[in-house]
Design goal:
With 936 residues, the chain is of the alpha/beta class. The protein has 38 helices and 23 strands. The radius of gyration is 45 Å and the shape is elongated. The N and C termini lie far apart (94 Å). Pfam families: DUF499.
Length: 936
């Protein structure tokens, strides 16, 4: 639902609507005035005061702990609280709240928020307490108080506090200390405090009194008194001291600073430091001064609810200081302002020397509201809230008021060059060039303006964090991810913006971007091309599973192998160009002067566009050029760190540019034409490597597979082949586009092995007599023992069963020939792999008188013999096949004895250590480790 613009829900005062300046006088309250009844009704009336108070997290915790302590509960609380507060009188507001509770006790239960305080405190009633207030700006030790109104004259803080707690009797306890201007000790203070009754003592504006009383010695005595009073309070169950000292160095002298540190250390050591907030009070002051304010309009609730839902949904990406769980209350307390706008003065600006708190901020916001109202009704903008990013920096009068508060007029070039004030300002230009959504939201300008306010304008090393920027500029209708996009664009463009690890700040000193702009123009085309190609090879070199070929120019640059190969085209060979597709088609079908056999083995990866790649490489080279000259450029530590980070970011951007550019995959389709697969918008977080991403996509469509089932082979068995060689089987997966591509060629061995176990296929060699030797069927054969060769074949189940039946038939008559299964002649066919050579010697027959002689004559096939012996040399590469094809059939029947003779004599000799390793291996196998050494 579209949110109404703020200016259609609330109305600025007449002078602002007419564009007239506002005289924003200060509005403040004094704790002494609350005590003696002189404060405005909103502060004087406790019920009304609580009704208008927004209990922030810190204020709730402070109040709950004070109530606990006054109730006599010492667990999870303290007797002394040091209140550090900032803009808008938050400290006085907090002390006033404590005063009203202590003064009214259980009568406060009906006030808004008190039930929650009691719940947090873990008590059921608010204890009524004796109270004393000392306000440093009010109390004067020269004239003192009383003496002419029937009360004793008090000129010291301890005299005033003793009188407030115990009247004249209480004052008499410290009367001598009053005369001698000496702080009382703990024993006197113990008697001065009411016995058995909760006591609350409030100190406000302490440093003001210290600064004025330093020469008289009372400042030093006040330190002693506060120290002694704190020690006594810590020993009592129901006494609380709440002390407010300034939280900034605003207008402090060196002596003030020294005393400030002394008091702060004392209070922090003996008690608990608490940072308060005054958001609700500040907002009320501002809204009453700037608007015709009659309370929060009902129409504003819709906007607040939209923001509340958005804040809850994105709370993990927002700053921890923002009370997301109380977002509705925070929005109600600040509307029509965004909460971060009002809080920035409290969080950041309070440390600026010229910051004038309420008066200055009201003047600034008056100009702001007046300008925003006029612009809104001109139809220019429809902002639902007045946020930091909407500050009218283009207005010279507003900029002057801003720089007055910041105390830094030198920011004028930064604002007008990078944000607004000139038509060509970087933020304005980026908004003009942005997408319609960002352009309409003026997001670059809002982000830059927010950084200016959050980073204290360069006065201190203030910074705007990424979560703070998100909170200030993002809206329910806007994608929060756009904030990072704008920050990156601003960081790359602005001349006065510094960025370090998601922290940003504007300064009056130019940054490295100006240097970058100059260096980019001098980078050579050749160096850009070299860097781009190296980065492409680096990106595609990550991950495993594929062979890589980079930037081929002709077909013989791409090997013709039965191996899945990723071919990466050069950046200039872009997918939209017709010449690129022609190049791919030519190199897919040709391999030099010959036709390519393994067309399906090629996976082509092609860039969509190289423009971004080249620009990112140019930027990276420019940063490296600056880094090489950093000594001569005399960069400071911060700039050097930024240079290092910018260089790393440029390297990352170049890598991401490779991911984004190489989004097109080409391969041979089922119809033998080129097929294109668009990977879409990809980035490095999508997978461990770009190769992994490509493989994952190809696996999804079963274009690339880890392996296939044995049944796949039988389904696609070539009808014309009774026997299919294992080499041809493997090659088919890389030659035929109808077959899926095997990620690893050896995967076909596993398929064959599983097929043998299941009886789907048989693994055979061809014997000289026309039979099969070896013949492996329906029994296990490890994938490592399977040979991929032209003379090793697979046959289908039916043919294998037919062969088994033939072997089981009765023996043929004498003189007839018959294939022998199991121990006949050596396999024939193919001479590429030498066969073992040796002599077969027969063993005496058991049922006939036929005797075999040395390799010259064999018994008839049907003759039963006792066994045989064979001796010969075997190539080391054939050892496993020898066992599989020759010996495995006898391994389980018993009676197989192996005698091994090993002669190891490498051309270059071997070492004693390797012989020792051999002995260890023999020992582990339970064999003799006697080895005859040969000496040179």
């Amino acid at each position: 639902m579209a949110m109404k613009p703020w200016y259609k829900i609330v109305t600025p005062r007449e002078d602002l609507r007419e564009g007239k300046p506002l005289d924003a006088s200060e509005f403040a309250v004094h704790l002494d005035h609350v005590r003696d009844g002189r404060a405005p009704a909103v502060y004087q009336n406790p019920a009304e005061f609580f009704e208008r108070t927004f209990l922030t997290k810190n204020l709730s915790e402070l109040t709950a702990q004070v109530v606990r302590r006054l109730s006599g509960v010492k667990v999870e609380t303290s007797a002394i609280f040091n209140l550090s507060t900032q803009f808008g009188g938050g400290k006085t507001h907090s002390l006033t709240l404590l005063f009203h509770l202590a003064q009214n006790g259980d009568a406060s239960k009906s006030w808004k928020g008190v039930s929650g305080i009691l719940q947090n405190a873990g008590v059921t009633t608010v204890p009524k307490a004796a109270t004393a207030i000392f306000v440093g700006t009010e109390f004067d030790s020269i004239t003192g108080r009383g003496g002419h109104d029937g009360t004793p004259l008090r000129k010291t803080p301890w005299g005033e506090i003793a009188f407030q707690l115990g009247g004249e009797e209480g004052f008499k306890l410290v009367e001598q200390h009053e005369k001698e201007l000496t702080a009382p000790g703990g024993d006197v203070i113990e008697r001065m405090l009411p016995k058995g009754k909760p006591t609350l003592i409030l100190f406000d504006e302490l440093m003001n009194y210290v600064s004025r009383s330093r020469k008289s010695g009372l400042a030093s005595q006040l330190y002693t008194f506060l120290h002694n009073l704190s020690e006594v309070a810590r020993g009592r169950d129901n006494v609380v001291l709440a002390v407010s000292i300034p939280a900034s160095e605003l207008e402090m002298t060196a002596e003030d600073q020294s005393d400030f540190e002394r008091f702060k250390k004392l209070l922090d050591r003996l008690g608990k430091a608490v940072i308060m907030s005054a958001e609700a009070e500040t907002s009320e002051i501002i809204r009453r001064r700037l608007f015709e304010w009659q309370g929060l309009p009902k129409e504003a609730i819709a906007t607040i609810e939209e923001y509340e839902a958005w804040l809850q949904a994105n709370k993990q990406q927002l700053p921890s200081w923002f009370p997301v769980e109380n977002a509705r209350e925070a929005m109600k307390a600040s509307y029509p302002f965004h909460p971060s706008l009002l809080s920035v003065f409290e969080r950041k600006w309070q440390g600026l020397p010229r910051f004038q708190q309420t008066r200055g901020v009201l003047r600034l916001l008056a100009l702001w509201v007046s300008k925003a109202y006029a612009e809104g009704y001109k139809g220019a903008h429809k902002d639902p809230l007045i946020s930091l990013g909407t500050a009218p920096l283009e207005d010279p009068l507003f900029r002057a008021a801003l720089f007055e508060q910041l105390g830094e007029a030198r920011l004028e070039p930064a604002v007008t060059t990078d944000i607004a004030g000139k038509d060509h300002a970087h933020a304005l230009r980026l908004d003009t060039e942005a997408t319609p959504e960002l352009k309409k939201a003026r997001l670059h300008r809002k982000v830059a303006t927010t950084i200016l306010f959050e980073s204290n304008g360069g006065q201190q090393r203030g910074e705007a964090t990424l979560p703070e920027v998100r909170l200030a500029v993002a809206e329910p209708a806007l994608d929060i991810g756009n904030v990072e996009q704008c920050l990156e664009a601003l960081t790359d463009s602005c001349y006065f913006l510094a960025a370090e690890k998601n922290r940003y700040r504007f300064s009056f000193q130019p940054n490295l971007n100006k240097l970058l702009a100059d260096r980019r123009a001098s980078v050579s085309t050749a160096s850009i091309d070299e860097v781009v190609r190296k980065e492409i090879q680096k990106v595609f070199g990550a991950g495993t599973g594929l062979e890589r070929v980079y930037f081929p120019k002709k077909s013989n640059d791409v090997p013709d192998r039965a191996l899945l190969t990723l071919v990466v085209l050069a950046p200039e060979n872009t997918a939209p160009e017709p010449a690129t597709k022609n190049l791919i088609s030519t190199m897919t079908t040709e391999s030099g002067a010959s036709s390519r056999t393994f067309k399906s083995a090629l996976i082509w990866i092609v860039p969509e566009d190289a423009t971004t790649l080249l620009e990112e490489a140019r930027k990276l080279l420019a940063w490296k050029d600056i880094d090489a000259d950093s000594g001569e450029l005399k960069l400071d530590e911060t700039q050097q760190r930024q240079l290092t980070e910018n260089t790393k970011r440029a390297e990352r951007d170049l890598r991401e540019a490779v991911w984004r550019a190489y989004k097109n995959v080409f391969l041979l389709g089922d119809d033998n034409s080129l097929r294109k697969i668009d990977l879409g918008l990809v980035h490095s977080s999508a997978a461990g490597s770009l190769v992994e991403l490509i493989l994952a996509r190809l696996r999804q469509e079963d274009i690339v597979v880890e392996g296939v089932s044995p049944n796949f082979l039988t389904r696609y068995w070539p009808p014309a082949l009774p026997e299919w060689s294992t080499k041809s089987v493997r090659d088919a997966f890389y030659a035929s586009p109808k077959f899926p591509r095997l990620l690893k060629p050896d995967a076909v061995k596993d398929t064959i092995s599983r097929g043998l176990d299941a009886g789907t296929v048989a693994y055979v060699g061809k014997a000289a007599d026309g039979g099969y030797e070896p013949f492996v069927y329906k029994r296990s054969l490890g994938s490592n023992d399977i040979e991929i060769a032209e003379d090793v074949y697979l046959i289908v189940r039916e043919r294998a069963e037919e062969y088994v039946a033939q072997k089981a038939a009765p023996a043929a008559p004498a003189g007839a020939t018959q294939p022998v299964s199991g121990g006949g002649a050596a396999p024939s066919g193919g001479t590429a792999n030498p066969q073992p050579t040796g002599i077969l010697r027969g063993v005496t027959p058991t049922s006939t008188t036929t005797t075999a002689t040395s390799g010259t004559s064999e018994p008839p096939p049907s003759t039963e013999i006792a066994g045989f012996q064979w001796t010969g040399e075997i190539s080391p590469q054939k050892w496993m096949n020898f066992y599989t094809k020759v010996l495995s059939r006898f391994a389980t029947s018993g009676g197989l004895k192996l005698t091994v003779s090993v002669d190891v004599e490498p051309p270059g000799g071997t070492t004693v250590s390797k012989v020792e390793e051999t002995k260890v291996a023999l020992r582990e196998l339970g064999l003799s480790e006697d080895v005859d050494l040969k000496h040179r």
